[in-house]
Structure prediction request, 763 residues.
Amino acid sequence: MNAPQRIGPTVLGYPRVGPDRELKAALESFWAQRVDHAELLEVGRRLRTDAWQRMSEAGLASVPVNTFSHYDHVLDTAHLFGALPERHTALGGSELDTYFAAARGADDTPALEMTKWFDTNYHYLVPELSPDTRFTLHGTKPVDETREARGLGYRPRPVVLGPVTFLLLSKPSSDAPAGFSPLSLLDRLLPVYVDLLRALQEAGADVVQLDEPAFAADRSPAELDALRHTYQRLGSEVRRPGICVATYFGPPREALHVLARTPVEALAVDLVSDPDTVDALATEPALRDKEIVAGVVDGRNIWRTDVDTALGRVARLLGSADRVSVSTSCSLLHVPYDVERETALDPRVRSWLAFADQKVREVVLLDRALHEGRDAVDADLAAARAVVTDRTRATDLRDNTVRARLEALRPEDARRGDYAVRAAAQRDALRLPLMPTTTIGSFPQTQEVRRARADHRAGRVDADAYRQVMRDEVERVVRLQEEIGLDVLVHGEPERNDMVQYFAEQLGGFAATEHGWVQSYGSRCVRPPVLYGDVTRGGPMTVEWARYAQSLTTKPVKGMLTGPVTILAWSFVRDDQPLADTARQVALAIRDEVHDLESAGIRIIQVDEPALRELLPLRSDEHKAYLDWAVTAFRMATSGVAASTQIHTHLCYSEFGEVLPAIDALDADVTSIEAARSRMEVLDDLNDAGFSRAVGPGVYDIHSPRVPGAAEITDLLRTAVDAVPVERLWANPDCGLKTRGYPEVEPALRHLVTAAERIRADR
Ligand code: GLN
Ligand code: ZN
Prediction:
């Protein structure tokens, strides 16, 4: 180890899908065998070298490398250490084929499981490890990219997932003995990190960033010991580059003090999610000979940084560490590339926003202000300040009517009457059969629907013609459901591009972007709306469609809305007021929509909250506050209706364990919940949580093209009947059907109806 050079202004990672989603196009062409390996690799090379160039031109001293990925960085790590499951490696083919087989599955070989990356909307692939796993330095990606960046004249800082987080994010493979913990493999893994560090140094890295975001969540003493042991061990190696350990998405708390006492050279810390971390750093004596990489620019939201607040934070650290560099709070993976391209945005709103490229410049500006003095960058600081002041003073972001209405709401407005009374009123009003059958809302989006939407957006088709195509589709979907024999129908959501964007486009206070794509997983990208002001509803958003569908049938049609928590979770939200306040505003808009649906004669209204679990804070001492406001927002949205109006909610995409009491507290009359893959286990969990209202456990896994047979669904329903009285059960798929095709959906729904009929016949 040479005397460490300051890392200097940097970012912890950069977007990788390309400004125009070039990676998505390349991947999809490759999978469809329209382009070969060489072409795909060339697109990847161009994307990363462009990224380094953009960052370096903007003034970054140290450029992160290995933050590009062909699919996912956790999968990259498992591949790097030769730890992909044998079911994928045994398939043969090239390295890239094995890699994509693990990512996406191949024929009968299932992919790795995919799950959310901490509390973000990015999904990673979960490595599967067992006592037999042997790690080797199998791949060369970080080493190659370091050499590549070095060759182009940059100062590369390879970014690799740290060993402890890698093991904590992994799960035991299905053949591992009960009780096996991947963390027990740590001592087998560390020598391979030692080899990697050496190889990275030889390739020209003077410092390596090891990411340990798992330590922004609660960790046991044993896990903290593993962290201590790891960095003692890696830090005591003689032939290695400098080590910078990064934590993000929350305060590292105890882990900070553990890491400070290991022989690593630098700690990168998120100072946005919890400003109090500044105090913890400033008073930690063991940092005196280290570098702090101070994450004061928000890496996951899109607002311009308040430079004075940020500088105040980093300046406090100058006395407590040997070196201080300015950085983002986390990787910029979670934000789009460049706000300057958003020419359709209101220029004033645009001026308040910073995407990746703008954030890189903020980091550089702040680092100069810190080290060269504010005077050296006076004009730039003044300009940055002016934008933030303009946003703070923007009175037109406020809507006093909305605020006054929220003030006037009383606690009882977020409470419905007694469930037994509601259930009786709904029984009389709806007259549904035992174990009613329904769907979660969306039906497959046909070519025709997609084409009509694209044509409408491009101005080739006018609003009336577009509406007509949608109405025809609604009619077709209603007729199909009647013919299949479902009990509670839906309109099918053909008019919705996305369950959040559809509402954001109609609500005041939201803006849509044109190019603001963010990777969700692999080739999938989303374009989160920007929630910048008070939320107002100009008028009904969904009533026309629900009313039309209801006019076609005597069966009840379920109105379909997205809940406040999910709308927040999948948007970039304002940071100038507590999330709870923003949630209340969204809830009020949904409440008005619920009211209008009810007035239009819709007797069942579903408010989806699939993201309820996603926003759960990483630290358990913050759970209660979050769940309180999340539940209140849902209840505000849904409590303004008559006892006879039936409120449904829907949850999916997650392990519900920690939020089961909150699901109960939502007080929905009917809760549909993903359950097919876990074979109805969630019902026992709901029972344990004291849940006593109606529930629709999903009996058709819509993530798979497989069509479940009637016997299989009947089995699942019988399992459900064993757990929950049949009077409280509904039969439905796991989630919406929009990602599937009719050839699968039609038979699956027929089997669902047959299965429910068999259960009724059992009685
Ligand atoms: N109603 C939505 C649909 O069916 C729900 C989607 C979801 O849960 N993600 O598409
Ligand atoms: Zn769902």
The chain has a mean pLDDT of 96. The chain has two domains: 22-393, 423-762. The two ends are 76 Å apart (CA to CA).
